[in-house]
Structures are given as C-alpha cells and as structure tokens.
Amino acid sequence: MFGGGGGLNPRKMKQMMSQMGIDLVEIDAEEVIIRTDEEELVFTDAEVQRMDAQGQQTYQIVGSPESRPLGEGSSESESASGSEIPADDVEIVAARTGVSEEDARAALEEADGDLAAAVEKLE
After folding, report:
1. Which residues does 56 contact at the CB level (< 8 Å), separation at least 6?
2. 1-69 with 85-123: one CATH topology?
C-alpha cells in the first residue's frame, strides 16, 4: 500500500493521518511510571505521543525503562514526601506546642505529616 523503499515521508504521513481524523500530539513528559502487580517501569527522558482518533486517546512511550520492585519505588516516594512537610504545618505544630520549628518538623516527619500525632508527641 505504501510502496517504495524506506518508508513514508513524515510530512506525507502526517497529512494522511490528518485526512483520516487522527491527531498526533507530542507530550513533554519528565517521567512516566507504569505500575504492575510486580514492578514499576520508570521511564525518564522518554518521548511520549498522544494519538486522538475516533474519540479514543492512545499514548505511545518511546524509551528505555528502569525496572524496580513495586515496594521499592513507593518507599522512596514516601520518604521524599516525608521530608517535604509544608511550612504551614510546621508553623502550626510549633505554635501549638511552643517548640522550635526544627523540633516541629522532626515530629511531623516521624508522624508522616499527621498534625495531630505530631502535636500529641510534643505535648
């Protein structure tokens, strides 16, 4: 159908897809994570395209993923989010208990961001 040697001219292919009602959109993704029952496939610096056709959206990811066990990625995310306690939360705990912001932040990190638990620990 497409004949010829090495394939179709990209501009011609885009024109044909447009005529068939297919739109192709490049997505500037920083990271793509596919989570299965057993592992996470993490694509960093991947090329991502979304194809819109007949009311459906299809995503294409091109790149080499890093495979990591399911629990490993979750604990890294939790510890990263644990160290990013909102400043407002730190101020609330410090004001309520009369401790320094450093102590309030430490208590919040131990309590996984739970304000009530951090206050209770410090009182």
Report:
1. none
2. no
Question: What number of other Cβ atoms are within 10 A of residue 16's Cβ?
Answer: 12
Architecture of the 85-123 domain = Orthogonal Bundle (1.10)
- Residue pair 24/58 in contact (Cβ under 8 Å)? The answer is no
66-80: per-residue pLDDT in tens? 998 876 544 444 444
Only one residue has tokens 């995310």, namely 77
Residue 111, classed as helix, strand or coil, is coil
DSSP, residue by residue, 41-93:
EEEES-EEEEEEETTEEEEEEES-PEEEEHHHHHHHHHHHHHT---HHHHHHH
User: pLDDT digits over 82-102, tens only?
Assistant: 457 888 888 888 998 999 988
- pTM over 0.70? The answer is no
B/e letters for 80-96, b = 16+ CB within 10 Å, e = fewer, are: eeeeebeeebbebbbee
> Which CATH architecture does the domain made up of 1-69 adopt?
Single Sheet (2.20)
Question: Domain residue spans in the chain?
Answer: 1-69, 85-123
